[in-house]
Amino acid sequence: MTEFGSDYHRCDSPFHGSATISTLLPAHRLYASGRMALLAIARREGWKRLWVPAYFCHEIIDVWKHEIEICLYDDYPLEANDEDLVRSLPYEGGDALLRMNFFGFRGRRSNQGISVPVVEDHSHALTSEWSLHSDADWCMASLRKSLPLAFGGVLWSPKGLQLPEYPASDATCDRLAAERYEAMALKAQYLHDGGDKETFRRKFIATEEGLDGINGIAAIDDESRRILQKTDMATWNAQKQRNWQAACKQLERFEVAGRAKASSPFSIIVTLQDKEARDRFRRYLIEHSIYPATLWNIPEEVPFARCKDFGERMLSIHCDARYNEQDIQEMCETINNYDANH
C-alpha cells in the first residue's frame, strides 16, 4: 500500500552510514525538540527579547512567549532581500535575532554587522551550505521535521561558543517517545500489509499533544539518539534532493515555490491562487492518499499580510527519502490528474 506524507513510519535502517550528525556537527547538544534547544540558550544567555520571522509556527512562538518577549518581523520564504531587513530592525540591549532557511530556499547568509546575538533555525535544511558554513552565534534545528525520529532537536555554535550544560532526561518525554516509536512501527506494518490505521493515528496525536504539554527542557530519548548516531544524513538528503528534482520536472503546470533556487529542499511547496483553491486541492490529495502539510496558520492579529497570504495558499508535499523516484513519479501522476474546475 502506498501513501504519501504525514508522520514517519520506521524507515531508518536502510540509511545507516558514516555521515552522521556527529560527523557534521562535532560539538552539539541534543534535546527532545527544537523549541527546547532555543529555550536552553535563551535561558543561559538571559535574553529579554527575541525577534522571530512573522512567517513561523505560532504554536512554538506561544511556548517561547512564556519565557521571553517575542517581536515579529516581516520575513517570509519568498523574501528576496532579507539581508537588509534584519539589519534595519530596531534592536535594543538584551535582544536576539532568529533567522530561518525556509524550506531550504535560501543560500548562505552572513550575520556580520548585526548588533545582537543571532540564532539560525536550520530545521528545513540541516545539511545545506548555509547550515554547514554558518557564521551565526548559535544554530538549532528540529530534527524530527526532516529525519525519521520520534523526537529530537539540536543546538550548536558555529563560532565555538560555550554550549549549555547537557540537558537531563525526562521520564515523560522518554515514555512519549517510546509510544511514538510504537506508532511508527504500526504505520510501517500498515503500509506493508494494510488494515486499520486508527490505532497508530491515535498514538501519533496523543504523543504530539503530550510533547506540547511539556514546558521544560529535556534531553533526546535514547532510541532517537541511537537512530541519529547511525543515520547517514548525506545519503538521506541526497535521495530527498533527487525526489524533489524529479517532482519539479513532472509538476510543470503547478506553481512550485523555489523551483529554480532551492539548494537543499525540504519538501515540494505548491502555491494556489487563494485559500479556497488550496483547500480544494488539499481535499483531492487526501482522497488519493497524499497527505500534505499546511505551514503555517498565521494568526489574524499578525500585521504582515504577505505572511498570512502565503500561509493560506501553500501546501507542503513530502518528498523525503521514505520514497524513491518511482514513488514520486506515481505521486506526481496523481497530482497532475487534478482538475481545478471540479
Written overview of the protein:
The model has no long low-confidence stretch (mean pLDDT 94). Helix 3 (58-64) links the parallel strand 3 (49-53) and strand 4 (69-73). The longest helix is centred in the middle third of the chain and has 23 residues, at 171-193. The protein folds into three domains: 21-156, Aspartate Aminotransferase, domain 2; 171-230, no CATH class; 233-335, Aspartate Aminotransferase, domain 1, CATH 3.90.1150.10. It is built from twelve helices and eleven strands. The protein starts with a strand and ends in a 6-residue tail after the last helix. It is α/β, with parallel strands linked by helices. The chain has a seven-stranded mixed β-sheet with strand order 2-8-7-6-5-3-4, covered by helices on one side.
Quickly describe the structure:
By secondary structure, this protein is of the alpha/beta class. About 40% of the residues lie in helices and about 15% in strands. It has three domains: about 140 residues, Aspartate Aminotransferase, domain 2 (3-Layer(aba) Sandwich); about 60 residues, no CATH class; about 100 residues, Aspartate Aminotransferase, domain 1, CATH 3.90.1150.
